[in-house]
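User: Sequence in, structure out. Go.
Assistant: Echoing your sequence, followed by the structure tokens.
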Amino acid sequence: MEFDYLVAEVRQEATAKANHVLNEARKNAKHLSLEAKKEADLILAGEKARALEEAEARSSIVSGARLKAKQVVTEARNKLVEEAVEDLRRELLEFAKSREYKAVFSKLAKQAVSVMKRDCDLLVAKRDLALAKSLGYNAKPFDMLGGAIASSKDGLIRVNNSFEALLEERNDAVRQKAFEELFGKKGK
């Protein structure tokens, strides 16, 4: 009987040790599982941060490319508007050679001289000298497209009715009109 008692005691001790080892293994497994989860969470957070940085970098590149594209389009549009304004200058120069120009010249010269309200010289394009003299003005040659500039005898006061001055005076409106003609009212 003592033998049965010894076997039962050994079994009981073995069961207790096995339970203890099993509990320790469970604790270690739980601890390892928590550590693995923490490590996985850190890796996941790092990957999310890296993916977010990449997305932001790509977004920045795309935004930069869009801005550059808008700049290129704007520069091209501005160049076309400049070309349209230059075409207008050439058309004015051609107009100054036409028959209809005499009436316009006469009106611009008369207005410039009347604003001066004193004896003055009339500065005109070289080709307009004869026209100005035929209208009774004391004319001097001046480098311009057309029109007239009334100038005081000392040259300190001028009333500028040259085509260039009229274009400059209406610069914004001329450019706006050219833009609308080229691209429509909304510029699309």
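User: And one key feature?
Assistant: The chain is about 70% helix and 10% strand.
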